[in-house]
Amino acid sequence: MNLEKVKTITNLFREKEKDPRCSAVIVAAGSSERMGNDKLTAALGSIPVLARTLRAFEACPLIAEIIVVTRADRIEEMADLCRSFEISKVSKVLAGGATRVESALVGVSEADPRLNLIAIHDGARPLVSQELIERTVRAAKEHYAAVPIIPSTDTLKIVDAKGFVAGTVDRAITFRVQTPQVFKAEFIKGALTRAMEKELPLTDDCSAVEMMGVKTVTVPGDEDNIKLTTPRDMILAEAILKAREA
Predict the structure, then answer these.
(1) Cβ-defined contacts of 210-214 (< 8 Å, 24+)
(2) Which of the residues 24, 142, 179, 233 has an alpha carbon 20 to 30 A from that of 118?
(3) 110-145: per-residue pLDDT in tens?
(4) For 20-146+178-245, which CATH superfamily applies?
């Protein structure tokens, strides 16, 4: 083997070592009340919603393991789903808690301690792209906390308790936050533990980190990375899927 070839192979190994390695916690412990039926096992293009979500992280080379957090009565069902769709990176299927914070904390607490980044993603966001996962993980490696965002397109109003408009928010500085949200492992573990102790009603994991004074960098999100909450969202998701496959 000549010297130039040896140098090329060595450089490839060095580049590979620079890639971050990340745990992914998929939160799938909700009740699907607003959907009217179980959204996680609902078919999206003939494949269950949760299976599509898991496949996206399975295919990402920066994700070293996947932890699924679900309801206690669905652990066996979700484990079977992982086996059926050959999601080999799933290391644990765990019972979540009564709140989003509690479920996320269950997942991050069981992440492989050898991995210093943890991504938390909604199980009901099945259209997340490889590009978005990698973009957010790489940003978190550099900045310790990263979230994808989408600019607000509607005018936002502040409304008082009586239903009257109390003010207008500058649309230019407001954004919609998506998942995956990716953090340095010790930051998110400490932040969620603190949020649990204080019984804070947080709706996203980034909020817990913010309360510890950690600045979170933002990356461009993806309009297609919708969260399935209502039947209307399923119709939109089917349309997005068909457009991708066209």
Answers:
(1) 212/187, 214/144, 214/145, 214/187
(2) 233
(3) 999 999 999 999 999 999 999 999 999 999 999 999
(4) Spore Coat Polysaccharide Biosynthesis Protein SpsA; Chain A (3.90.550.10)
